[in-house]
Design brief:
The chain is of the alpha/beta class and 103 residues long. The chain has one domain. Helices cover 16% and strands 50% of the residues. The protein has two helices and ten strands. The longest helix has 10 residues. The radius of gyration is 12 Å and the shape is globular.
Length: 103
């Protein structure tokens, strides 16, 4: 299960297409504490360089429409992988669908 403060999601929606998720694992929860916004090459996929931090747990990015087949494969590389499409938010934990709770 992934927990993310709504204020972080609102900030992401207003300004960015992708960001790294900073946080930690506590029992069965991934807790997102902050976002690290980065410049990324956006196209059919995005490329960016992760910050050198021990607390990078995943990535969030937006889609103008439903997620692509590339997302399923890419989500396996991250502990937490979030996709924002319009008002919908989908979460994955190491490639498996996961519930996302807004705090």
């Amino acid at each position: 299960m992934i927990l993310i403060p709504k204020v972080l999601l609102d900030l992401f929606d207003d300004h960015y297409e992708c960001a790294f998720l900073l946080g930690k694992r506590v029992r069965e929860y991934w807790i997102v504490d902050a976002l690290a916004f980065v410049h990324a090459e956006i196209g059919k996929s995005f490329r960016c360089i992760p910050p050198l931090r021990h607390d990078v747990i995943g990535v969030i990015h937006s889609h103008p429409e439903e997620h692509s087949g590339l997302d399923k494969e890419a989500s396996k590389a991250w502990s937490v992988y979030l996709i924002k499409t319009g008002r919908a938010l989908r979460g994955f934990e190491q490639g498996m669908p996961s519930e996302v709770i807004l705090l």
